[in-house]
Amino acid sequence: RDNVGYLATYFTVGLVYGGLPATLYGVFNGVLNVQGYEYQGVKALVTLPWSFKVFLGAMNDVAPLAGGYRRRPYMSIGWALCALTLVLLAFLGLPEPYFCRDHDGSYIVECTEKTAYHSIACPNERSDGTQAEPCNARAPDSAGTISSLMALAAFGYMVADVAADGLTVTLAQTETQTIRGYTQTTAYLTRSVGMAISVAIVGLCMNGKIYNGTFAWSLSFSSICMIFAFAAVAMVPLTWKFVREDPVPQSQRAKLGPYAKSAW
Predict the structure, then answer these.
(1) Residues 6 or more apart from 230 whose CB is under 8 A from it?
(2) Is 30 exposed, middle or buried (0-12, 13-18, 19+ CB in 10 A)?
(3) Helices (H), strands (E): how many in the chain?
(4) Quick one: which of 47, 44, 45, 74 has its CA closest to 58?
(5) What is the pLDDT of residues 93-141, one digit of tens each?
(6) What letter would DSSP give residue 102?
(7) CA distance 79 to 16
(8) Could you say which of 56, 89, 112, 180 is the most buried, measured as most Cβ atoms within 10 Å of its Cβ?
């Protein structure tokens, strides 16, 4: 019971870390139809927060919160930020797709004899194989907002993950020789299970034609964000109430100067 919040953090990190990036292709290549270089930039932006992991780890150690706790408050704050951003993404939703869609939901990318009937995509019944006209030419304009919110959500679960990693080190130091490595193995296995589940959810539920998939049905991007948001919301009280951690006395708290020198 003391470590329910700790393992749940790794599971939920895997859930969001695996699931949110898995939506990028369908959202940005399918619905928004961004350029290739823009798509690569979005992928880089969403993973950018992980570059600051070392600095967050140092903050955990030198700036404990709520009476000397170095892990629990940061885990709760990180999940609160992640949940808030995911809810915002869910309510924001996606604009109408860039390309028009035909009767079966597929995008009309080229004007052919089968799509010449569409007055917007193929004006004047054009069927010469040229690129179809968009139904929402401003769809790519939403890419910046959506990708920025995704990056903010990633920053939130990264904050929680950094604190959990610090707690992993603390717990690992209490292991005996016979079970050494058990804590770390369990934590990362739990995260991998979360990632597998989230990738399966996105793969099955966002494989509709609107996301350049093949299924006749799919969940909306907003629904997927809400699924991840519910998990993140649940983590706020779980990490606060069910993570075992002893507060660090004032006299034993690390100072930034000596800490930086020892790290260097």
Answers:
(1) none
(2) buried
(3) 9, 0
(4) 74
(5) 999 999 999 988 999 999 998 888 898 999 988 988 889 999 999 999 9
(6) -
(7) 11
(8) 89
Token pair belonging to 12 = 């939920």
CA-to-CA distance for 93 and 116, rounded, in angstroms?
30
Residue 211 and residue 215: Cα distance in Å, rounded? 9
Q: What pTM did the predictor assign?
A: 0.91
| Residue carrying the six token digits 């990180």 | 78
Condensed to tens digits (0 to 9), the pLDDT of residues 219-233 reads 999 999 999 999 999
Q: Left if phi > 0, otherwise alpha if psi is -120 to 50, otherwise beta: which for 253?
A: beta
The encoded tokens of residue 221 equal: 């991007």
Name the residue with tokens 């292709």. 25
CA dihedral 138, 131, 39, 22 (to 10 degrees): 100
Paired tokens of 91:
């309510």
Give pLDDT, residue 179. Answer: 86
Question: How far is 57 from 144, CA to CA, in rounded Å?
Answer: 28
**Rounded-to-integer distance, Cα 167 and Cα 6, Å:** 8
Q: Check if the beta carbon of residue 159 is closer than 8 Å to that of residue 80.
A: no
Q: Which two tokens stand for residue 120?
A: 């917007």
Look-up of token digits 């969403």? 46
- Show the tokens assigned to 155: 């920053």
Hey, how many other C-beta atoms are within 10 angstroms of the C-beta on 55?
10
CB 170 within 8 A of CB 9: no
Other Cβ atoms within 10 Å of 174 Cβ, number? 7
